[in-house]
């Protein structure tokens, strides 16, 4: 644990601080988002951008119940990356769980704050329902074209994932944000440290939906990619990660990457 970063001065002062790590303009807390989200003060964040567990990777509950390394990776057991939690729910349970944390996230988001949620084709309809149930205004879907995928004869390639996005109520057109693309084309990252890690440049593009200098929350930090991308683009960022393995991996990644940038400058 490090000294509590300034990015965490938005927490309830009576909250018993969990294990955490951070540096200049970033922090990651080790714990369950459903518990920690409720401890932030209202109107604390300018954007919510996250890649939550999809609870997908199968056409029936038996295949969904497999470990995340089995569902999302072809690595051998010896080289497999650590598994993560909250990915074995049936669709209805997952939708209610998603709506629950999205409702907590909306309470701590500023009026007009954007929300961006990564998801696959199986859970896309459920995600749009959960977003609206939680009170957000649904504004559309952007596409992440992963360029490559496993070919299947006689079928369309499953080479895309999606970003369901919206806002906390009205979203003024005069915000200091340019026109972002609706399709992002980046291959999966090489040498991943998380089973479902997103490309860093993709996340550097996506975080720009937030107004300059804002504070971004990622309730499912994973490899820390969103937090790292946000800091590199000039934002403050707070992440939450429940997995022991990925809390360690993400914080080490952030410290190494940002210290390297400081040394280069």
List keywords for this structure.
alpha/beta, globular, nine-stranded mixed β-sheet, 265 residues, Rossmann fold
How would you describe this protein?
One of its GO terms (cellular component) is cytoplasm. GO terms for molecular function: DNA binding; N-methyltransferase activity; site-specific DNA-methyltransferase (adenine-specific) activity. Residues 57-72 have a biased composition (Polar residues). The protein is 29% helix and 18% strand. It is α/β, with parallel strands linked by helices. The protein has one domain: Rossmann fold (3-Layer(aba) Sandwich), CATH 3.40.50.150. The protein has a 9-stranded mixed sheet, sandwiched between helices. Strand 1 and strand 2 (26-30) form a beta hairpin. Helix 4 crosses helix 5 (124-133), helix 6 (200-206) packs across helix 7 and helix 7 (225-232) runs parallel beside helix 8 (244-264).
